Amino acid sequence: MELVTILSSGKGTWAQVSGLIKYGEWDKIIVIGDDFAKSFSMEKKFEFINVDLNKKIVDLKKDLLDKLKDKISGTEVALTIASGNGKEHMALISSLLSIPTGIRFVALTKDGIVYL
Fold first, then answer.
1. What's the pLDDT band for 8 if we cut at 50, 70, 90?
2. Cα separation of 102 and 7, whole Å?
3. Which of 33, 39, 53, 108 has the fewest CB atoms in 10 Å of its CB?
4. What is the pLDDT of residue 13?
5. How far is Cα 38 from Cα 2, in angstroms, rounded to an integer?
6. pLDDT digits (tens, 9 = 90+) for 38-56
7. Domain range spanning residue 26?
């Protein structure tokens, strides 16, 4: 399964994303963020998609859809929205559903990776 995540400006939220990438077995990892998130690094290989998170929600959704539609190969993705804000989450979820692809929310807990 592919992991899709968004990285926003709060570096404190990046730990959840890092843990999911590190401990999960993913077919592909897609990290979405702005210029600030370009500094994110991991030992595991991932694809970074640069977007302007300051865009209006409709424009952000369109940009995400345009950039994601050829990147998703499965019928569903694992999605974490531990980082980001409501506008970013809505635009990302809407773009994924418009591809169309299913979404399984995923989180890292003390018991390991769980699907919600």
1. confident
2. 20
3. 39
4. 77
5. 20
6. 888 888 999 999 999 999 9
7. 2-115
Cβ–Cβ under 8 Å, residues 69 and 96? no
The domain that contains 67 carries what CATH number?
Answer: 3.40.50.10770
Round to whole Å and give the CA distance between 11 and 92: 19
Q: What is the CA radius of gyration of the chain?
A: 13
What average pLDDT does the structure give for the chain?
93
3-state secondary structure the chain: CEEEEEECCCHHHHHHHHHHHHHCCCCEEEEEECHHHHHCCCCCCCEEEECCCCCCHHHHHHHHHHHHCCCCCCCEEEEECCCCCHHHHHHHHHHHHHCCCEEEEEEEECCEEEEC
Torsion angle in degrees (nearest 10) through CA of 35, 41, 45, 46 = -30
Tokens of 22: 């590190």
pLDDT at 10 over 70: no
Amino acid at 111: D
Task: Please tell me the total count of domains within the chain.
Answer: 1
